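Incident log, structure service

09:12 report received: a user says their structure output differs between two submissions of the same chain.
09:20 pulled the input from the user's history:
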Amino acid sequence: MQKILNNIIQARAGGSVQRCHTQRKIGEYSVAAHSWGVAMLLMQLFPKDFKRLVSYALVHDIPEAWVGDIPSPVFKATKHLKLEMSVIEDKILKKYNLPTMGELNEKDINILKFCDNLELYLWVREQEYLGNQFLKGMKNRLIEYLKELTTTLPKRIKVLIQELYIFDCKPTMHNIIETLDE
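09:34 re-ran on a clean worker, output below:
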């Protein structure tokens, strides 16, 4: 029982890591909030894959509690680092009895990468609505990467990305109770 409790405590610690720490941002952006967003995207966009992949969506960034949230430009500048980090991250996940990305096939990895990056893109758009003008470069890189990822995904996802670029991503904050019968 002690080991299970320790695994829970360590997994929760992973959720408290702040994402995008090298970027100026308004408010907090934790691994826990991001992972929940990835799971929600997975449920909406890939419902047939949701049950099989949701645990991966929820734990994929937990190792950042130990290795940090390394900015993607660092991985692009040092090609070998990404592979080395994935080995370390899988070891951390295994240590705490959590699913590892190494267990997935390429199709499932692409689905998760897509949801992972789409969630980040949506966060960037929300930051823009809050007045943060420092993330334009990140937004443009993300939209290009999302387009690349869609080459292996269903056509409806390609259409989604085309619409998302022009879609108003601002959340509506009206009283949802008033609209339940619509």
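09:41 both user submissions now match this output. Likely a transient worker issue. Closing.
09:42 reviewer note: The chain has one domain: 2-170. The chain has a mean pLDDT of 89.
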